[in-house]
Amino acid sequence: MSNEYTERLVRIADELRAIAENGLQWAQNDYDRARYDKALSLAADLLSLVDTRDAGEIERVFRGDLSVRTPFVGVDAAIFNAEGKILLVQRADTATWCMPGGMADVGESPAQVAEREVWEETGLHVEARRLVGVFDSRVTLGWPTSPVHLYHICFICERVGGALTLTNETIAYGFFSEGEAASLSLYRGHAFRIPCAFRLYRNDTEAMFH
């Protein structure tokens, strides 16, 4: 089975699941609920064609989270030093390198997510200053067949306090030029977003949307 075929099936299953779950949220009668229930079962059956789990297990996962479906949101922070190098951290779980960042919590603005994640991962206090861009994971993450759909928001942030330190999420950190960063083993999507951050830092472009 080709990667293109697998990607198409995953995307169709994901969109069908979203239609079904959103429909179940707002259905006004038993007839509509039955139709959306069937659509949810079909989404699980479709995904099972390219997943290691069978349709029954996938459907149980789907029905355990019957909520309105939207893409998840992750936020990255691009922090540059006086020499124009970017701060990257090495993840404890994969040993790959990335900008500090993580998933948004309910109640936070995107800028607050960036500032919190930087403090949690590096010990620095920063303020989000400029939007680098908004990136669709299925376009820029290198993960087109994932059933999880993410939007990544990236900010250039300015250091206002704190001290660099390792945390339970990081095993190393350092400042890197664009060329040095490109030679590292980078975590998903950062190979695309880090050059975008450098371009905006140099005022070569406006905020990007992918």
End-to-end distance:
28 Å
| Order of helix and strand elements from N to C terminus | HHHEEEEHEHEEHHE
**Helix segment tally:** 7
Helical content stands at: 40-55%
Main sheet specs: 5 strands, mixed
Q: Structural class from helices and strands?
A: alpha/beta
The value of Rg in angstroms is: 20 Å
Estimate the mean pLDDT confidence: 89
Shape: elongated
Report strand order across the widest sheet. 4-1-6-5-8
Detail the poorly predicted runs. Answer: none
Give the percentage of residues in beta strands.
25-35%
User: In total, how many beta strands?
Assistant: 8
In short:
With 210 residues, the protein is an alpha/beta fold. The chain contains seven helices and eight strands, in the order αααββββαβαββααβ. The longest helix has 24 residues, at 3-26.
Which helices and strands, and how do they pair?
Layout: H1 3-26, H2 30-48, H3 55-63, E1 72-79, E2 86-91, E3 97-98, E4 101-103, H4 110-122, E5 124-136, H5 137-140, E6 150-162, E7 170-176, H6 178-182, H7 190-201, E8 208-209
Helix pairs in contact: 1-2, 2-3
What would you say this structure looks like, in words?
- By secondary structure, the protein is an alpha/beta fold.
- It has helices at residues 3-26, 30-48, 55-63, 110-122, 137-140, 178-182, 190-201, and strands at residues 72-79, 86-91, 97-98, 101-103, 124-136, 150-162, 170-176, 208-209.
- Helix 1 packs antiparallel against helix 2 and helix 2 (30-48) crosses helix 3 (55-63).
